[in-house]
Structures are given as C-alpha cells and as structure tokens.
C-alpha cells in the first residue's frame, strides 16, 4: 500500500478492529446518490471457492477458521493486510487455517460513481470461481498500491490484469458479465447491517460495524490493526 494510504491509516491508528472509530473510518454505507445498485439476482449455492449462501470465499482447508469482512477501498483493511497478510498466508500454506473472505461494499460511495468496492468484490469472486488457487494472491494484490478513497479505483481492465499477474486465468469476460456477483456482494453488505452475523451456524455478532472485522474461530480480534505481534498471538491462542 502506498504512503498516502498509510497516512490515512495512521490517522486512525488508535482504532481497534470493529470498534466505533473504525466503523467511522470504513463504514460509509448509504447516503450517496451516485452509488450504482446491482440489479441481477445473486447466485445461490457454491461455485469454486465461493459459498454464495454463506457469503464468503474460502482459502485453505485448515481446522481453524479465520473470517475477515473487508472492503477493497478501505485504508484500514489495507493497513491490516500489510501488517498481518504474511502471517495469514503462512497459516494457509501450512494448513493451520481456513481463511474465509467476506467482501463488502461500504465504500462504493467514495469512488466517484464507479462502484469500485462492488467491482473489486466481483472481480475477486470471478477469480474464486475461475481459479481458486489465485484467490489469496489476488486479494493481496488489491491492497498493493491500493486506490485512495474519493478516487475512481481501478478499472475493470486493471482488475483483470492484476488477477492475471496474481496467477489467475483471464477473468475479463467474467468481470464484464459480473452483475450477479456484484449483486451478491451488495446483498452481503446489506445483510451485514441487518444481522445477526453467524459463523458455522452460531451467532457471533449483532452486525458488522466496520471493516476490517476479523474473527478467529468465532472470536473477534480486539487488537490494533497494525499490531502484528498482537494479532499473531491472538491467532495462535484461539
């Protein structure tokens, strides 16, 4: 993530994931007339690495479950990934965890009408359906030179190129026809506000109040976004 994004994240360095200030930083659902609304019917069931009914994309197959609710334009999500992404990737690689990514679209309102958060979520879904092995590298790539809030975000062509660079098959056609995946991400976002939030059939939260929200086996990480030591300890101890 570039320096401007880190500065924005540093401005909210006191945030703990999921607390009210974090919600203020990366929870901007509603109140904007220029947010494109997806009109297709969201998919059901599962396809590739996507559990459409559960609202997440799966990486890995470890016994411990790590759930992350995120927005691709959220600078705090980017800061969390920069600090803790290697730890999560290593835990996926060694079989310790199953990482479940819940893409949300809070920050569509700050991408100049392009619906970037929705489009990025749909592109990640395309990768998850087309080439599940490329999900984690592409997720990480979304936070490399992360678009700033109040920018247009990446174009569909740029998203497809980042996916290819991350090792995915070409997703250009999927991205162009991704209306159902966009609708799925937007529905997940609306559902995250209505609640309750359930993990493996058990209620864990009333609602998602901000991104990133991170749970390890159903327990919410309460520490600092960029405190890698605290997160590693929490991951190991839960």
TrEMBL record:
Signal peptide stretch: 1-37
Thioredoxin-like fold domain location: 64-227
InterPro entries recorded: Thioredoxin-like_fold, Thioredoxin-like_sf
Gene3D superfamilies reported in the protein's UniProt record: Glutaredoxin (3.40.30.10)
Tree of life domain: Bacteria
Keyword list, A-Z: Signal
Cell membrane as UniProt keyword: no
Annotated CDD domains: DsbA_family (cd02972)
Pfam family, one: Thioredoxin_4
Name of this protein: Thioredoxin domain-containing protein
UniProt source species: Leifsonia virtsii
Source lineage: Bacteria, Bacillati, Actinomycetota, Actinomycetes, Micrococcales
